[in-house]
Amino acid sequence: MGPSDKYMLADDSLQSTKSGFDVKVFSHWYRSLPVSSIGTLQLKIDGVKIATDDLTIEIEGKKFGLSQLPELYTLWWFILDPAIMHFESSSLQLKKGQRYQVELEMGLLIPYVLTGKEEKPLLASSSLSKELICN
Amino acid sequence: METGLEEVVNGGPRMGTTLYAFTLEWRSGKYTLETMLAEVARRKLSPVVEMVGFQSIRGFPLISDAFARDFRNWMDKYELRTSSLAINADVAIRPGAKLTEDETVEYLARQVEAAAKLGFPVVRSQMTAKAPVMRKLLPVAEKYNIKIGNELHSPYTLDHPDVISLINLYDELQSPLLGFVPDFGNSMHAIPKGLLTSFSKDGIPDSLLQLIQNIWYSDMPTFEKYSLLQKEGAALNGTPAQLGRLNMLLNLFSRQKPERWLEVMNRIVHVHGKFYSMENGEEPSIDYPALMKVFKTGGYEGTISSEWEGHLFTDEVSAFDIVKEHQTFCNRLLQSA
Lengths: 135, 337
Description:
The complex is a heterodimer.
Chain A: E1 9-17, E2 20-25, E3 33-34, E4 38-45, E5 48-49, E6 55-59, E7 62-65, E8 76-77, E9 83-88, E10 99-115, E11 120-133
Antiparallel strand pairs in A: 1-2, 2-9, 3-8, 4-5, 4-10, 6-7, 6-9, 10-11
Chain B: E1 14-18, H1 23-27, H2 33-42, E2 48-52, H3 53-56, H4 65-77, E3 81-86, H5 101-118, E4 122-125, H6 131-144, E5 147-152, H7 161-173, E6 178-182, H8 193-201, H9 206-216, H10 225-235, H11 240-252, E7 271-275, H12 288-297, E8 303-308, H13 319-336
Parallel strand pairs in B: 1-2, 1-8, 2-3, 3-4, 4-5, 5-6, 7-8
């Protein structure tokens, strides 16, 4: 959506783990939002879409399934802190030191900008595609 | 004597600095809150500082005693002073059901308490806190002796029904603690070129760019323009994503005449001196000479924060440099107004 999109993925965002891999992601908004504001989150590695059922997300040291996010309206995602997406499956194995094209799409529901007659929160969507070395 | 860029001209408005202008610098991760405050001081920007609670403070609105002590020490160390703390009326944090009036009051009260703990005399709230909420919030303002201003930011011009309700409420309550925070994005005479360029780069077709300009330059109130944009944009085959981007323009800019701020001048508790670019020492899309004259001759004696928001569409500008240029420009206008 704008210049802050480039901060959604950092150079060290992709990390292999014992059981799969992690991707550190950052908000593209200018301020912290409650975790319930994460309306959509989609990850692709080298063009392969990662099923959301295979992902958990860690914020403030706590892990959640993506379907739980709408309930988390009292947990804050600080603007300078990453949310860590954990992929724990052997269905996609990444190699340390190898480069991967990581694509992230994130839609944030802005809780103070209401749109339309039903006054629904604005969905602010951004995407970023970045080549990352797996650490 | 070098006094930095705060100059109070005959008791009139003074310029201030908001850390929101440095959004990209903050996002870069190169600064802590302390080093950012130090940078404001080092560059001799106005020492009267505003910030957004949910941007600058981890854990906001919870303020620990240790953080409050550190913050007050930094402000003393760098010879800075607080102006307004921007708080948020996030009524739609819970999917499916907006916060009730009482929940919104409670949500805002916690943030007002945080502002008091940090020593801010004013908070900027938002128009999503409507008149019934603001009526219930008055005792909180009184408890902490803090002024609360609803930001009048596009599309909330003085013609908006929610703004009219608030003006009526504030006339009834007659409290010096409740008022407004005008945002100069509401008083623009042109769309910043940088935004149109960024839309074009993002693949929004010329037909839609022409449409949004026709709509924006038309004379109906901004809040009535959204439905027209949806209808005519759909007829031009605009996608929901494209029309969403164009909606953003209506969320940022309105064309209210500068002198209309006089209608609420006695209720203004803080001002956002929004700007997008400086060309040849002037802001090309906002009539700053007229605005500075209105606020000075209208008797406003508070802070006007230099709120650069060009970071929404460019990262090729140093926000620190452009804020300094803006403050120099505005001080010159205030002196001659």
